Amino acid sequence: MRLSRYFLPVLKEDPKEAQIVSHRLMLRAGMIKQQTAGIYSWLPLGFKVLRRIEQIVHEEQARAGHIPMLMPTLQPADLWRESGRYDDYGEEMLRVKDRHKRDLLYGPTNEEMITDIFRSHVNSYKDLPLTLYHIQWKFRDEIRPRFGVMRGREFLMKDGYNFDLTKEAALHAYNRHLVSYLRSYERMGLQAIPMRADGGPIGGDYTHEFLVLAETGESEVFYDSQITDLTFGDRAIDYDNVDECQAVLEEFTSRYARTDETHDEAIYAQVPEERRRSARGIEVGQIFYFGTKYSEPMGATVVGPDGQRVPVHMGSHGIGVSRLLGAIIEANHDERGIIWPEGVTPFHVGIVNLKQGDNSTDAACEAIYAELQAQGLDPLYDDRDERAGAKFAGMDLIGLPWRITVGPRGLASNKIELTNRRSGQSEEMSPKDAIARLAEIYRPILQA
Amino acid sequence: MRLSRYFLPVLKEDPKEAQIVSHRLMLRAGMIKQQTAGIYSWLPLGFKVLRRIEQIVHEEQARAGHIPMLMPTLQPADLWRESGRYDDYGEEMLRVKDRHKRDLLYGPTNEEMITDIFRSHVNSYKDLPLTLYHIQWKFRDEIRPRFGVMRGREFLMKDGYNFDLTKEAALHAYNRHLVSYLRSYERMGLQAIPMRADGGPIGGDYTHEFLVLAETGESEVFYDSQITDLTFGDRAIDYDNVDECQAVLEEFTSRYARTDETHDEAIYAQVPEERRRSARGIEVGQIFYFGTKYSEPMGATVVGPDGQRVPVHMGSHGIGVSRLLGAIIEANHDERGIIWPEGVTPFHVGIVNLKQGDNSTDAACEAIYAELQAQGLDPLYDDRDERAGAKFAGMDLIGLPWRITVGPRGLASNKIELTNRRSGQSEEMSPKDAIARLAEIYRPILQA
User: Fold this and answer.
1) Are the C-beta atoms of A170 and A162 separated by less than 8 Å?
2) Who is most buried in A138, A381, B21, B361, counting CB within 10 A?
3) According to the model, what pLDDT value does residue A171 have?
4) Given CB atoms, is A106 within the 8 Å cutoff of chain B?
């Protein structure tokens, strides 16, 4: 993309309404615009990151064998009356009446609807196991929306639902989700720690939240410091293998890690004192096993191998897609702006032309721009007639991981500068070498 | 995908509620499920086609230089009070009150919101031309929703908005949209004819609707038969070239083609009698130029080259993404089921194993399945233990354009059968030749 043709309305001033750094930087970098309390437009740069995150989630769900679909944003109230949650949910549920005075609601989650789909179409245990998921906009009418997309009212979430014949099979689905979530977050450049949590309005007492440590987190968390040494990495895993998935669960959840909701001082005291940590965390996902909580009242049963109808065992599994942008920025920024992890960056590299209008500098930039695209990379070329300082500040603010700086002085000896956003370090090299280096850096990401 | 692990709940009986063939086939093929009047879940097969259509739209919008973003589904009522449409829109607008009694609405379209974004961020003519678009769920509270996704209440639409300094520049944006829409529909296997139409609640008298001819269309249309001979094909076009785009507009709109709203018997009478046609059409898109209708009341102005503030010239341009599934099926089916055009088919090819459980047949199917995937194709392998007749009927119903049939008799001489869904014709060949043939057929689609 050429910046002269893009829509990237960066702000020079810090917006007053933003209390936390991710909200401030998303507004300043022209990623979002608030339309009313807790409801945002995603401007082009923000939308690009949102799509990258969605794409990672889709890819990792496919790898785990989970099947994508899409449920609508509006739901009939009757489904929620069946489960008993219509009255329970309280004021966070946005209730709507249509022109015929029928009760609808803007879905805050989808246990009822997916259970309805299941009971309409599945009859036999032979069609199990089954895990369906979607990525869809949801609404929770927070009394005090704040922190930008971190606690918005209209938000994008991936939610998946497993249907299994037995508790054991459902717990394997739980483990599959844990593994796929670990992989997903790592691809986004995040360490998200699974912690024992509380079931809340979804239900069930078998649940883990995934938390990213950050000073601005809304939850207080307590953990054994050994847990932050764990990484999933690029290990191969067979998602059908019960033992392999169980081993990952044990590896990542056997050390103490709990949110304040489930924190237990007595157990925590058994962690060696030098490894006890308390910190703040941002919740970016949660997995649940809740057995037959919905299948029983809603009649989601299958005929088992013995010919008897039994309610299916279910769980639900969510990733906060739109809130992840905030969490990633909270964990990746400095005083100059955002520092995107390479897995989610909106553009792979920025090109800064130091002398726009100079024929040979322009030509060099164009050649680099074209060759990066030919390599499958997505560059942002700052082709505006602006001072170098303004171009650098803009690139630092929007946080692309790499920058190529092209000026007439360097070009005289066939050199450009390749700069890493995080370290700030620059290296002179030929355009060809810089392109090869970037292709190499992004190869695992493009092939993932 | 292996069918044994997919969720494809096909129906044996014709659903009673479906009045038109696309609705009936989408229900029978397990593509959608109605959740309440005019609100549907997209089951996995339906969701896949929806994504293919979205992808084509995104690719063609990018080619035209239009910039993707995303506006929320819910909008504050105040924006619509500014334009005067809040009261005008009537009962089709779904109005919502949040917990603080603030008025929201579920957006039926986005002229107001995009104008608000523009006026907040753009100040100078130097930032023009600009075209922003999104693909987002919208809601129109139809009094009598019917025909499945063809006239649903919650529907997915691509809507784009151009901002230009002058009427001439805005008309070039109009032409760019016309060209990109012609390309988009052709990639979906559709002939969509631009016809002079009426501005309706969007406004403006410079507007064309794109119509797909089909017996079940809701509009009566009148046209010169020469128009159905036109195809855009794979001609290269420079979207920045005003003359090139204008020439396409003239080529595709100079012959008589109007909906009943703008039909003029006197002009129609000038078409040679043997070329006059009247038929029914399904509207799958519409483009508008409406000048300063929104920019003036909402204060979306820029400083022009002469230092004076002027309201920008705008247009809006929509493609009915979810309704396109219905339109494509209306135009592509037979008595046995759907016949997907190759550009949008959910899976590229089906594999039918005639003797599931037979070691060598299973192995041959697995090898073909793996090799098709290695070629970048997306096959659906019917690996269920079912009769051949049931497998064939299922494949015909869901409408994949190609089928590979694998049985022990053919394999004895290294032969499988490759069958074209549309023609019904089969050819015996080696698995290797069949894979090469399919890779060749889909190459232009995968590279688009």
Assistant:
1) yes
2) A381
3) 97
4) yes
User: How far is the CA of A37 from the CAs of A46, A50, A175, A320, B157, in angstroms?
Assistant: 18, 20, 37, 19, 25
Q: Residue ranges of the domains in chain B?
A: 3-337, 347-447
Contact in structure between A321 and A53 (CB atoms under 8 Å): yes
Across the interface, whether the CB atoms of B91 and A99 are under 8 A apart is answered: yes
User: Nearest residue on chain B to A114, judged by CA atoms?
Assistant: B41
Average pLDDT of A23-49? 98
For residues A152 and A38, what is the distance between their CA atoms, to the nearest angstrom? 4
| Most B CBs within 10 Å, among A4, A7, A386, to test the B interface | A7
Chain B residues 24-43 with CB within 8 Å of chain A = 30, 33, 35-37, 39-43
CA distances, A372 to each of A368, A381, B81 (Å) = 6, 11, 47
**Is the minimum CB–CB distance between A70 and chain B shorter than 8 Å?**
yes
Q: Give the CATH architecture of domain A20-337.
A: 2-Layer Sandwich (3.30)
Beta carbons within 8 Å of A279's beta carbon, 6+ residues apart = A213, A217, A220, A221, A223
Is residue A198's pLDDT more than 90? no
CA B203/CA B222 separation, integer angstroms: 23
Using alpha carbons only, give the angle B2, B3, B6 rounded to the nearest 5 degrees.
95
Chain A residues in contact with B117 (beta carbon < 8 A): 33, 41, 43
Contact A76 B154 (CB under 8 A): no
- Are β-strands B379-382 and B349-353 bridged in parallel, bridged antiparallel, or unpaired? parallel
* The pair of three-digit structure tokens given for residue A89, joined into one six-digit string: 């949910």
Contacts 24+ apart (CB under 8 A), B411-414: B411/B360, B411/B361, B411/B364
Query: Which parts of B292-409 are beta strand (E)?
Result: 301-303, 309-311, 313-320, 333-334, 337-338, 349-353, 379-382, 402-406
B429, β-bridge pairs: B416
pLDDT band per the 50, 70, 90 thresholds, residue B448: confident
The correct CATH number of B3-337 out of 3.40.80.10, 3.30.930.10, 3.40.50.2300, 2.40.100.20 is 3.30.930.10
Query: Using 50, 70 and 90 to split pLDDT, how confident is the model at A216?
Result: confident
Q: What is the mean pLDDT of residues B424-432?
A: 98
Helix, strand, or coil (residue A407): coil
Q: Do A47 and B69 touch (CB under 8 A)?
A: yes
Tens of pLDDT, residues A248-300: 999 999 999 999 999 999 999 999 999 999 999 999 999 999 999 999 999 99
How high is the ipTM of this complex?
A: 0.96
Fold matches, B3-337 and B347-447 = no
What pLDDT digit, counting tens, does each position of B193-215 carry?
Answer: 999 987 777 777 789 999 999 98
Alpha helices in B2-76 (DSSP H): 21-28, 44-63
Fold of B347-447: Rossmann fold (3.40.50)
> Predicted confidence band at A447 (pLDDT cuts at 50, 70, 90)?
confident
- Indicate the length of chain B as a whole number: 448
